[in-house]
Amino acid sequence: MADLHHLLDTHGDAIYGFLLQVTGSEADAADVFQELWRKLVERPALLDDARDPRGFLLRMARNQFIDLTRRRQTRERIHAEASSGIPLFDTSPDPDEQAFRDALQTALAQLPADQRAVLHLKLWEGLTFDAIATLLDIPPNTAASRYRYGLDKIRDHLRPLYNEIQSP
Amino acid sequence: MNTPEPSPLEQRLTHLPTRGLPPGLRADCLRQIPQPVPSWSRRIIDLFSPNPWAWSTLAFAWILCAVLHLAQPQPVVILSARSAPAPLQTDSETIRLLALQRATRDELLRPSPPPIPPAVDRPRSRLHSTNQLA
Predict the structure, then answer these.
(1) Which chain A residues have any C-beta within 8 angstroms of a chain B C-beta?
(2) A33, A40, A91: best mutation site toward chain B, by most B Cβ within 10 Å?
(3) Domains along chain A?
(4) Is A114 exposed, middle or buried (0-12, 13-18, 19+ CB in 10 A)?
(5) pTM for the whole thing?
(6) Domain residue ranges in chain B
(7) What was the ipTM of the complex prediction?
(8) B1: pLDDT confidence band, cut at 50, 70 and 90?
């Protein structure tokens, strides 16, 4: 049986970060996380057969997010909430760095949730496209193309600021 | 699928620290974890598990108690008239006792004969005196 304390300590931050990315809202991310956690508390044996607990939990989180969007009957509302910026990163004492993070959060918020999910799993979870494809139930090529499209949009959005920071 | 070498932008994004679980949400999740109630055996194991030497001490004490108990001689009871157990009353004894009890009761219930009047010192008759003279 899974040790829930250990589970929360080891994977809690990563799952919440992923949910923050795909929902685009702290409130929604917290709702989905709590729902996922309730299921784990009720059935801790769910993870007994999981070879990769992190991947299993990310998949559970993604399915929980889909349930949330179905309950609301529309994904536009989530996109609209996300357009104000996703508070995904820690604040930085460096103003330039903070400006970069704010711009990145705004750029991420303008992406579709599917692209955000792939970007997050690739950049901040370090998963391969094959693993992302398995987790999101999409072909690996689709995962790769979503990643490229998303990254290009972010690069375009950040280019002026990024060039300014990069220049000495 | 082959992954191309990450660009400088990707490398920079990868190292950005993402936000963790908010403390309030984390506390809510921890509160939902049911606390198991340890049984007595579990408590004893928890008590001794950090101290392996305690287990060996406990086992040694138990073995010592067992050996001392087995080595102790059985107490010898000296039979005497006072310590001897009371004999069982057999049926014949019971019948004899009942008969004795009944006889005693009958004796007590039997009417007593009239008392003998005490002897009176009367003057002897003349015939008696004559006989004495003869």
Answers:
(1) 4-5, 8, 12-13, 16-17, 20, 26, 30, 33-34, 37-38, 41, 87-90, 101, 104, 123-124, 126, 128-130, 140-141, 144, 151, 154-155, 158, 162, 166
(2) A33
(3) 4-166 (1.20.140.160)
(4) middle
(5) 0.60
(6) 39-67
(7) 0.77
(8) low
